[in-house]
Amino acid sequence: MQTHGRITPDNLMSLEAYAKWRQAHHGEMVALRQLRSVTLGEHMRVQFESEATVRYQIQEMLRIEKIFEEDGIAHEIAAYAPLVPQGCQWRATLMLAYPDAQQRQRELTKLVGVASRVFVEVEGHPRVYAIADEDQVRETATKTSAVHFMRFDLDAAMTAFVQAGAGVRLGCDHTHYPAHVDIAAPTLASLAGDLNPA
């Protein structure tokens, strides 16, 4: 999928053009999303976004909802375009998955504040905690949402280390969900491409 630096109605494909493009490239986009997805513990998945993944998500929503009018297209762009990383940052969607509905209800009450306890840790540098849910409140005092949107702001030194091949750990230090994992090298190589120092 061709990227343009900024998603606008003028550089999205029409429904007809996207249908043809999708037949040839759907598998590639699924693979890209899998590459940029990191499982953290048993129930948490962090999907790191890029212009390509966000553009794909918008095109998919337009296709599924059969949206072709300007207002509808603008609404989808407004909803998803903020997930495109800018400068020295990563943006991600956090998903909490519990197959059993009762377990999900119970666990989401324990995990209030979990999104802001997710962090990335570049080798040799302090943790960077997520800035979560800037678009809207996604939890109450008694229950969190199963989906959160996050950004991680890296400084220049961290960015240089990542682009030089330093390891990065993804973790969560919420009391009820302690977990961490080293981000795999192929995933990290893709994420390094998002960092664009001014």
Automatic annotation (TrEMBL):
This is DUF3501 family protein. It holds the Pfam family DUF3501. It comes from Limnohabitans lacus.
